[in-house]
Amino acid sequence: MADRSLLEVGHTTRAHGVRGDIYVDLLTDRTERLAPGARLKVGASWHTVVAARPAGQKWLVHFDGVDDRTAAERLASCTLYAEPLPDRGDGLYVDQLVGAEVFDTQGALLGTCSAVVANPAHDLLELADGGLIPAVFVVSAAPGRVVVDPPEGLFDL
Question: With the C-alpha atoms ordered 81, 84, 90, 93, is the resulting torsion angle positive or negative?
Answer without folding.
Answer: positive
